[in-house]
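Pair request: fold both.
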Amino acid sequence: MGRKLLMAGRSGLNLTHSEPLGRFLKRYGNAQDWLEPAIRAFPPEALRQWAEGLGQPCFTGSSGRVFPKAMKASPLLRAWLERLAQQGVTIQTRHRFVSWEGSDPVFDTPDGRISVQADATLLTMGGASWSRLGSDGLWADLLPDDTAPFAPANCGFLPDWPADFAARHDGSVLHSVGLSFGGLSFDEHQSRGDLTITARGFEGSALYALSAALRDAIRRDGQAVLTLDLRPTLSNEEVLKRLLAQRERESQSNRLRKALALDAPSQELLRLATPKNATPLQLAQTLKALPLPLVGMDALDRAISTAGGVQREVVDTRFMLTSRPGVFVAGEMLDWEAPTGGYLLQGCFSTAHAAANGVLGWLESSNSAIA
């Protein structure tokens, strides 16, 4: 149970974020107005109280992210499962949802295929990344008219750089660099943080915050030009001043290292983006706004989360499928995306809370109709 939750716990289990709710809601981009009622009904403070009610006190880190003090998922998951058992919930593992009989789900089980006749069904089957943890997205074939194609979100990107660059610098980190795309405002398309160079390209939370806009641009134009600021805490003037203070007889590599503590991969990126024998002014200008073309995304299965899935047009305000009365959907299987930082888990919990209330309302109305 809870394999993706346990995986999230490996990096501390970032449950949610403490920023003001108005700012928080903007993180959901085009899906904000869709998810806002659910998040307001079950906001970050409610998620924190839920975890603490299971005996897992939380704290807010310096970045505003909220974590359980245990910094892992297993104690929370154990307490959660124990509570469910006490409430009489029956958990059946090794069941795969394979088809429908009307609005009743059909499962392949160790004892053969079974159809479950339910008063209401709530589906929370995840997106299509990290399939080895269970969320392979194959369920979309069972809702072909209701789903949008999956796409990677919070994913790595593939830069247009020399073929051997990644191999030579695999594992290197560009620390605290500025990233921007499209010349838009900070909240929308500008970020700052560490970038990790991998054998496939770039990864990092600062990049993930821009992933939706970058992905859409690559699909539309064939590439997206990311702009890096290799020294965001220094002004253009200060960068130039430090470069000019170095002795002319020093090599360019030494000047960049001594003046700006620029590491080897950063220096190589700068050389690739400037002419040979670049002047200090050219180096300073490029270092503060280094263009890096991105030509692809990492594989869907390696993405932290996915866009695509059940479209907003096919569910009502209770997250019930309009084509299958009594069937509700929630979590990452819905077509929304958000950056890392607590927004993903919050969105999953809030939509599940809303859908569960939808189930209760559906059952009450059904019972009233029978009476």
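--- second member of the pair ---
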Amino acid sequence: MDELTPDGQGTALPYRLGPARPALGLVVLQSDETVEADMRRLLPQRANLMVSRVPSGAEVTPETLTAMEAHLGQAAALFPPWARFQAIGYACTSGTAQIGVPHVAAQISAVVRTEAVTEPVSALIAACRALGVTRLGLISPYVAPVSARLRAVLAEARIETPAFASFEVAEEARVARIGPGSLRRAALRVAAEAPVEALFLSCTNLRTLSALPALERELGLPVLSSNQVLAWHMMRLAGLTPPRRAPGWLFKSG
């Protein structure tokens, strides 16, 4: 039987409240054109993904990345105030490396009710642990100081990056349009540079998702990307089962 509205007079339509879907949050860079669509492809349909945006520079430098920290809390505060999240992800690999994992988590947790906060750096480290990877080939789109900081953070987590290459691009508008042929050539070059156990394509704005299965077949290695590991880690933290369509060895690792 339908429930009457509180006035009991039947002047408004009666309704019942359905069960809440598992809530996941995503804080996306203002300049990012890629991650939101990728996450909706990767997450199960029953997950309720809510997205907010944080101001970010048109060019990626250590300074523009660091500046995002001051806006993270404000961006997270734009989520519905009554929402309870299983996990919230900050969708920026290099931004996390520059700001620091604890600072990202603190800014978001201070204003949102969530069980967990993650980002591509913590997600990548967790993925490497799950796959038993300690030697990682790394491809970055960004300029040298930005890439160097990410490599240093991975080294602190005892993940070596003996094979590395970058497109040396600063403009986000260009990063989002680096084509699959360029990614393939970069992947083959880095994989041949030194013995590695997996390859990582860094940057949430890089269009990598569709390229992962073919690269894994060609290289015979797990190929990871920022958006893939972030979705995988968010689902793990939230206790959600990845959909069968999720690409890559990572989702088959158990």
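Observation on the second member. Residues 34 and 205 are 5 Å apart (CA to CA).
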